[in-house]
Hints:
Blueprint: H1 2-46, H2 61-71, H3 81-88, E1 95-106, E2 110-113, E3 122-126, E4 131-138, E5 142-147, E6 150-155, E7 159-160, E8 168-172, H4 174-183, E9 188-192, H5 198-212, E10 218-222, H6 231-247, E11 251-255, H7 268-281, E12 287-289, H8 291-298, H9 310-326
Parallel strand pairs: 8-9, 8-10, 10-11, 11-12
Antiparallel strand pairs: 1-4, 1-7, 2-3, 4-5, 5-6
Amino acid sequence: MKRKKRINIKNLIFLCGFSLFSSVLLLLAMSADRKRMNEEMYASSLSSSEPVPVLSDEEDTDDYETTASSALSSSTVSVSAKEATAILEKTVFTVSEYETPVSMYTSATVNVRSGAGTDYDRVGKLSWGSQTTVTGVTDNGWYEVLYGDIRAFIKGDYMVSELPGIPYLFVGDSRTVQMKMAVGSTDKAYIAEIGEGYSYFKNTALPQIPQLAGTGTVLIINFGVNDLANAGKYITLVNNNIEAWTNAGMEVYYAAVTPVGSGTSVTNSQIEAFNLRLQTELDPRVHYLDGYTYLTQTGFSSGDGLHYSADTYRSLYSYYMSVIEAD
């Protein structure tokens, strides 16, 4: 009886070991099958006909990056040759060459470009009134010009056949002289003398205005600080000439006498009275530049109480330009 019991225990041990071995083999086989299925599914996804998304102008960049990486993290997005050409494409134009080149003038400070479009490189710049040799015209409104040794292009809106009036003409006294020193004379002309007033305006400046100003010129007058008692005379002189100036294509502004500091022979009360008469008695076609209020509010720097620092003149000039551009 004891021997039979030992044999049964050995058989039991053998059967347990065999069962465990079989289970391990089965698990290994199932793992191999699963790996093979995953590889087949991955290969199938690579051969799928569904396209990888390509970024367009309408798509958001962040959305595109998320979609592309989830579809296939190792894929490369390419742009076709046609799309690349479209990105680099510039304005297309044709030139009708003149049999004989003609001379024209720039009516403002303008860019000179390598082609007839703002998407072409700038090769230079010409200031107002530059006489230019024009060799042709394009079908989109640009002129082909000789710029040094090359053929270049200027937008037709800024070319005229006759020398145009200067864009800005300042007429005045020492404050106008010093504004010229502070802001320069590009696109601007000045008729001004130190210490002058009504007599200079009437006898010297007035005859010079038509020689410099014309269609498109902004005329800016600034007299009075040296002879505030002549307010009525200034008003009459300007009102008597406004018809001729506007008929010639000018836009006319009278700039208020600006404030003074301490140590001068005139007072701000006198200046305010002068300016008030200008505002109420000048012809309605004369625009008013209230530099007095502007400097009173923003402040000014003056060494002698009458004349300003260069920074103040530049600030005042910027104010003038902002009002003129807004009109």
